[in-house]
Amino acid sequence: MVPLTSLWLPILLSAVFVFVLSSIVHMVLGYHAADFKRLPVANEDELMATMRRLNVAPGDYLVPCPASPRDMKNPAYLERRMKGPAVTMTVTAGGPIKMGKPLGQWFLFTVLISIFAAYVAGRALPAGTPYLQVFRFAGTAAFLSYAMGDWPHSIWYRRSWATTLRNTFDALLYAGVTAGTLGWLWPR
Question: What span, in angstroms and rounded, lies between the C-alpha atoms of 49 and 71?
Answer without folding.
Answer: 30
